[in-house]
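tokens incoming
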């Protein structure tokens, strides 16, 4: 593995209260001009970022365990990405691929064909955001199958556009007041081992059983031959970093194949080395028909993609897919550089190493504190689910207390979960061991204090 060079000192340094005076002043300016619907979970304004740190406008250096929601896996100013962007931006910023195409778009598609699972002929279409990719995967599946229904799951998050709101499970804050929603969207039960009941004999419900439950609902309530697509996050993100029981995804994917249903893996959050593989489906050898990607793909530049079976994607007539900015040349240059960095820096290996470091610590904590209901996740996508002591009752108050206390200590940490009771760790995959250890030390002290 090439060693990682950092531009900014990789230190936690808190020199003001958080947020500091300059951040507070920006919050005041913001209130006068920015829509209240856009909320920031950490009211500290960024001035610089590199590796595992964000330096704010008051000179505080914060450890970043959020990576802008799993985006800056290669770092927020990875030198190879910066150089590729500078090179491209000096030549042209945009021509529109639908007007005057360029090579970068093709090179990204070639790379995605190579990295995504499946040895069939593949095609790719590029977009700007995760929601747009998911929405287009549904367009493709409907067009190719001539069917309407789309199956999604409890706790799912797929975006904020009208169709993807309908696909998303949680009302507050994503859907409340924004209806009516797109029709022909059906929600099936997820495999959520921590909250799953047990079989009568006390054994855990298996992935295969959870899949059978979902399939039975689909067959009885929709009818297999009406279903265009199953859309699922192989590891759920926003909904609580839920890792389905082994066997759940393979069984769903097999059922989809047998019934002419397009299996769409929404890898927007879990993809690009985040879980220790290129894609989270790789863990169980699941080969989706279509994969949606965004977040980690381009080192922070806005880019999204749908990659999958050529027969499905090519079923769409010319002009049926696209967009003015989709596959922007600067974003494509960033994606190519990011994907090579992932290889050169062995970020799959780094993600597995992070998992080992973090889960060892967190499991010890879970043994000690009964407000920790579950520790789960894969690679650099890890979570703690907080509960009321001695039960599985969600504990959002403790979750909030932990994230606020972490910020006061100079560490950015995000929460998630249908019940708002999950703290998620999504460090950049280039974070140093020293910085991560420091963050875990502080997390342990904070949990100790909150639990007391
Ligand atoms: C973030 C996310 C989306 C939406 O992506 P945007 O770029 O915010 O539109 C879709 N699916 C999953 C799994 C996500 O995590």
């Amino acid at each position: 593995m090439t060693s990682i060079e950092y531009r900014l000192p990789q230190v936690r340094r808190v020199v003001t209260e958080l947020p500091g005076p300059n951040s507070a002043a920006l919050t005041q300016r913001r209130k006068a001009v920015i829509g209240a619907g856009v909320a920031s979970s950490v009211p500290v304004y960024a001035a610089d970022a590199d590796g595992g740190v964000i330096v704010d406008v008051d000179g505080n250096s914060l450890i970043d365990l959020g990576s802008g929601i799993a985006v800056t896996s290669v770092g927020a100013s990875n030198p190879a990405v910066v150089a590729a962007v500078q090179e491209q931006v000096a030549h042209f910023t945009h021509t529109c691929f639908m007007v005057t195409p360029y090579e970068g778009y093709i090179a990204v598609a070639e790379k995605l064909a190579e990295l995504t699972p499946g040895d069939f002929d593949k095609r790719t279409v590029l977009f700007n955001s995760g929601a747009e990719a998911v929405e287009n995967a549904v367009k493709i599946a409907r067009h190719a199958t001539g069917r309407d229904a789309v199956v999604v799951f409890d706790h799912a998050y797929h975006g904020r556009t009208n169709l993807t709101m309908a696909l998303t499970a949680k009302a507050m804050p994503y859907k409340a007041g924004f209806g009516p929603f797109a029709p022909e969207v059906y929600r099936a039960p997820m495999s959520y081992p921590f909250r799953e009941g047990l079989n009568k004999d006390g054994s855990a419900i298996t992935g295969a059983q959870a899949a059978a439950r979902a399939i039975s609902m689909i067959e009885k309530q929709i009818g297999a031959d009406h279903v265009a697509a199953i859309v699922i996050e192989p590891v759920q993100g926003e909904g609580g970093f839920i890792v389905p029981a082994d066997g759940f995804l393979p069984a769903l994917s097999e059922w989809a194949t047998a019934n002419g249903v397009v299996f769409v893996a929404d890898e927007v959050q879990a993809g690009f080395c985040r879980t220790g593989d290129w894609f989270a489906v790789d863990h169980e050898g699941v080969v989706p028909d279509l994969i949606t990607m965004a977040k980690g793909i381009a080192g922070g530049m806005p880019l999204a993609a749908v990659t999958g079976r050529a027969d499905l994607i090519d079923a769409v007539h010319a002009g049926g897919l696209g967009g003015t900015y989709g596959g922007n040349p600067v974003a494509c240059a960033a994606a190519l550089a990011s994907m090579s960095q992932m290889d050169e820096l062995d970020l799959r290996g780094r993600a597995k190493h992070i998992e080992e470091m973090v889960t060892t610590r967190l499991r010890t904590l879970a043994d000690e504190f009964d407000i920790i209901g579950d520790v789960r996740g894969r690679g650099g996508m890890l979570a703690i689910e907080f509960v009321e002591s001695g039960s599985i009752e969600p504990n959002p108050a403790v979750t909030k207390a932990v994230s606020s206390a972490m910020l006061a200590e100079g560490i950015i940490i995000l929460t998630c979960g249908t019940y708002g009771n999950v703290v998620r760790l999504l460090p950049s995959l280039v974070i140093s061991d020293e910085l991560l250890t420091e963050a875990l030390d502080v997390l342990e002290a904070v949990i100790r204090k909150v639990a007391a």
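note: The chain has a mean pLDDT of 97.
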